[in-house]
TrEMBL record:
Domain of life: Bacteria
SUPFAM superfamilies (UniProt xref): HAD-like
Span of the signal peptide: none
Pfam families: HAD_2
Organism of derivation: Aerococcus christensenii
Designated name of the protein: HAD family phosphatase
Alphabetized PANTHER family for the sequence: 2-DEOXYGLUCOSE-6-PHOSPHATE PHOSPHATASE 2, PSEUDOURIDINE-5'-PHOSPHATASE
């Protein structure tokens, strides 16, 4: 593969942040005096933040605007992104190697942009990415390929020379179905690990696997 562009998911791919999302919906509902259903985590897993807000409002009769729900959720997690969350192992070195190989990079995420910007800036990784695209910004979750298509337009590369890095099986499946080359990234919070490994064109346990190698020969 002649690698010219890279589209990175953020949570669980670049940053070790999935733990905060596991019970976020339930914690938010409890803060409003609502008891979450046992299947809430499963229901929200593949949704964007916008989709989650609409779902919570309708299923739990919150009688709040979508914007108010999103604000409430973001308020719960803001301090985590601003002061705590860290990149996964070897991410910085991997991004630097891509940069030195003239690979253009963007982020495509379901998390709100200000949270991503805070985490990147604190860890000194902002300059590696030309743009941060969000599901809310493009109007579709990762059950649809729009965010990957917009990312490709931003990179100004072609699909065959662009690699999508995803830790979530459902998101990787969307990208793959849309004709993208996919690199699965291991994360402990993704239960469909074998499915991800089988689906992906490449698969990383961590980013050290491709360090100190000629990237254009590996990909």
């Amino acid at each position: 593969m002649n690698l010219r562009g890279a589209i990175f998911d953020f949570d669980g791919t670049l940053y070790d942040s999935m733990a905060i999302w596991e019970d976020l919906g339930a914690d938010y509902l409890r803060s409003l005096g609502k008891e979450p259903a046992s299947d809430l985590r499963e229901q929200l897993q593949t949704m964007s933040l916008d989709q989650s807000a609409i779902y919570l409002n309708e299923r739990y009769a919150l009688h709040l605007s979508k914007e108010a729900i999103i604000q409430g959720i973001n308020d719960q997690i803001r301090s985590y992104y601003v002061s705590k969350v860290l990149p996964k192992a070897h991410v910085r070195d991997f991004l630097q190697e891509l940069k030195e190989a003239d690979v253009k990079m963007v982020i495509a995420t379901a998390t709100d942009k200000p949270l991503i910007e805070s985490a990147l800036e604190r860890c000194g990784l902002t300059t590696y990415f030309s743009e941060i695209l969000t599901c809310s910004g493009v109007g579709f979750g990762k059950d649809q390929p729009m965010i990957y298509q917009k990312a490709l337009e931003s990179l100004e590369t072609i699909k065959s020379e662009t690699l999508v890095f995803e830790d979530a099986f459902h998101a990787a499946q969307t990208a793959k179905s849309a004709g993208f080359v996919v690199c699965g990234v291991y994360d402990a919070f993704e239960p469909k690990q074998e499915e991800l490994k089988s689906l992906a064109d490449y698969y990383l346990i961590d980013f050290s696997q491709f360090l100190n190698k000629k990237l254009r020969e590996e990909f």
